[in-house]
């Protein structure tokens, strides 16, 4: 039928330190609301934010403290996070199943495909779900 399937693969190591940024933000907001949490130990390597992530945390904190509930980053910071710290998966091959004991692909059925806009679809939760 002239169809060609192409699979692109990018191999890179995604660093995990960015998870400390939202963790620190949540900690700060919780403490401001008088949640009884211990202080962050500045010598604890497992929660330390340093280097290129420090200005990102500061930029987000400044916006949140000013009441912005949808903080944004500079293009430079956003690109840095996308390049080194954020995993992106666009795998949505056809679902394979067995029909009469033989492997078969369900063509045209891609439940994991991204929306045409590239944005994640969010569906409202209804009562009883």
Short description:
With 129 residues, the protein is an alpha+beta fold.
Describe this structure in words.
The protein is α+β, with helices and mostly antiparallel strands and 129 residues long. It has a domain at 17-84. The chain is 27% helix and 8% strand. It has helices spanning 20-32, 54-65, 75-84; strands spanning 95-99, 102-106. The chain has a two-stranded antiparallel ribbon with strand order 1-2. Helix 1 (20-32) runs parallel beside helix 2 (54-65). The longest helix is centred in the N-terminal third of the chain and has 13 residues, at 20-32. It starts with 19 loop residues before the first helix and ends in a 23-residue tail after the last strand.
Structural class: alpha+beta
Trace the largest sheet across and list its strands: 1-2
Q: What is the count of helical runs?
A: 3
The low-confidence runs, each spanning 5 or more residues with pLDDT under 50, are none
Distance between the termini: 42 Å
- Strand and helix order: HHHEE
| Backbone shape | elongated
Global mean pLDDT: 84
Q: Using DSSP, what is the number of strands? A: 2
The biggest beta sheet is recorded as: 2 strands, antiparallel
β-strand percent reads 5-15%
* Radius of gyration, CA atoms, in whole angstroms: 21 Å
- Helical amount: 25-40%
What is the topological layout?
Elements: H1 20-32, H2 54-65, H3 75-84, E1 95-99, E2 102-106
Antiparallel strand pairs: 1-2
Helix pairs in contact: 1-2
Keywords:
129 residues, two-stranded antiparallel sheet, 8% strand, alpha+beta
């Amino acid at each position: 039928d002239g169809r060609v399937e192409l699979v692109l693969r990018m191999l890179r190591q995604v660093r995990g330190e960015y998870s400390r940024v939202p963790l620190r933000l949540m900690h700060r907001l919780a403490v401001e609301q008088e949640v009884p949490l211990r202080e962050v130990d500045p010598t604890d390597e497992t929660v330390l934010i340093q280097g290129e992530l420090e200005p990102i945390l500061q930029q987000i904190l400044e916006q949140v403290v000013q009441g912005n509930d949808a903080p944004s980053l500079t293009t430079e910071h956003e690109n840095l996070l996308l390049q080194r710290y954020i995993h992106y998966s666009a795998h949505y091959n056809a679902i394979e199943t067995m029909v009469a004991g033989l492997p078969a692909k369900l063509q045209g059925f891609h439940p994991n495909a991204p929306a045409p806009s590239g944005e994640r679809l969010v569906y409202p939760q209804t009562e009883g779900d």
